[in-house]
Design goal:
Elements: H1 7-22, E1 45-52, E2 61-67, E3 73-75, H2 81-88, H3 97-105, H4 108-116, E4 127-131, H5 137-145, E5 150-155, H6 159-165, E6 172-174, H7 177-180, E7 188-194, H8 203-213, E8 214-225, H9 230-234, E9 249-250, H10 253-263, E10 265-271, H11 280-292, H12 307-319, H13 321-335, E11 347-354
Parallel strand pairs: 4-5, 4-7, 5-6, 7-8
Antiparallel strand pairs: 1-2, 2-3, 3-9, 8-11, 10-11
Length: 355
């Protein structure tokens, strides 16, 4: 029997290790709370959000603080290295690899749009490094837009090794970008970070690594969630891009532009409408339904749900289908054309040239 055909057995096998990790409580996965902003150093902090893990439903409570001086929003207290391992486990790989791989693999149009955003600035880059490439689906789609470009990928999960085996990237680097940056020095015409910077423990260190990897005259392409989106306030904890506890930093666009300029980049493009992903209402409804319904089986639960709880979960999710459909239609046809104008765009994209 294949691994994919026996999810219940795989969950049961993983349960003892998860329960052992949780025996001392999830609080041990958090570092001490900091009293200053990691972006500007200000001590003027306010709580922006309190939430739980709404995607995997692993135990734990998380807080996002906002700096009143520069607007930077960050997880506080932040996950420790051990905490990051615990909450990432079985999300992008392991038990979650197949599901996430299918989700990311189906977004070809979005990936092509990201590649096309570079055409006005460098229509024929020879080399491109995609940092945080995951399974390499962006690189595979981008090759259709830029067939003469050699795409490499970098990630700290084993997905990048899969990407290389599947031929989606020429070379897959596994590990920390800042640690690997010296061997990549000035090796790329383009370095991209698509929804990567918000996962990093130290965004400034990542930007300095990018400065070293981009050749003079080359470009850095960054796309991140926009913490200034009105949806972030209107939807609260149900706004998908908060993605707690994985997302550690949310950088306002003005802060990122300023830091890139200080490092020696020139920002040549800023986009808000183009990177907007029209899923905010759909995701909010789904997160609320999934949160309300009894839990599906997972190895961090003490025991599998019984038949009655499974039936109740199925009934609640089926009852929510009309609302999910309505939210999808609103996202795609009512909000999407006006998202930037109304301040609802959930992401922004910056293209910066290294001088």
């Amino acid at each position: 029997m294949s691994e994919e055909s026996r999810p219940a057995e795989r969950i049961a096998e993983a349960r003892p290790a998860y329960l052992a990790d949780l025996a001392a409580g999830p609080e041990r996965f958090l570092e001490p709370r900091r009293s200053s902003c990691p972006w500007c150093g200000s001590r003027s902090l306010t709580c922006r959000l309190r939430t739980t893990d709404l995607l995997q439903h692993k135990p734990g409570r998380f807080v996002l603080d906002r700096c009143e001086d520069c607007g930077h929003t960050f997880q506080n207290p932040r996950l420790s290295a051990e905490g990051l391992e615990f909450y990432y486990r079985d999300f992008y790989d392991g038990l979650g690899e197949k599901k996430l791989g299918e989700t990311f693999g189906s977004r070809t149009k979005m990936y092509r749009g990201r590649a096309e955003s570079m055409l006005a600035h460098d229509p024929e880059p020879k080399t491109w490094l995609d940092v945080g490439t995951g399974h390499g689906h962006f690189c595979a789609a981008a090759r259709e837009v830029l067939p003469a470009t050699a795409f490499d990928g970098l990630d700290f999960t084993d997905g990048v090794e899969l990407a290389q085996r599947e031929g989606r990237v020429r070379h897959g680097y596994r590990g920390s970008f800042p640690d690997l940056a010296p061997e990549l020095a000035e090796g790329y015409d383009v370095v991209s970070m698509f929804h990567y910077l918000e996962h990093s423990t130290d965004p400034d260190r990542e930007l300095r690594a990018a400065l070293g990897a981009v050749r003079p005259g080359g470009h850095l392409l960054i796309e991140v969630p926009d913490p200034e989106s009105r949806y972030a306030r209107l939807l609260g904890r149900w706004w998908l891009p908060w993605l707690q506890p994985q997302h550690l930093h949310f950088v306002p666009v003005a802060n990122l532009r300023e830091r890139l300029t200080e490092l020696g980049f020139t920002v040549v493009a800023e986009q808000h409408a183009e990177p907007h992903d029209p899923v905010d209402l759909l995701a909010a409804v789904w997160l609320a339904l999934d949160h309300t319904a009894p839990r599906d089986d997972a190895p961090w639960l003490p025991r599998p749900p019984n038949g009655a709880r499974r039936a109740l979960r199925a009934a609640l999710l089926i009852a929510g289908i009309p609302v999910l459909v309505a939210a999808t239609l609103l996202d795609r046809f009512a909000v999407r054309p006006l998202a930037h104008r109304l301040g609802l765009a959930n992401a922004y994209r910056i293209v910066a040239r290294r001088e």
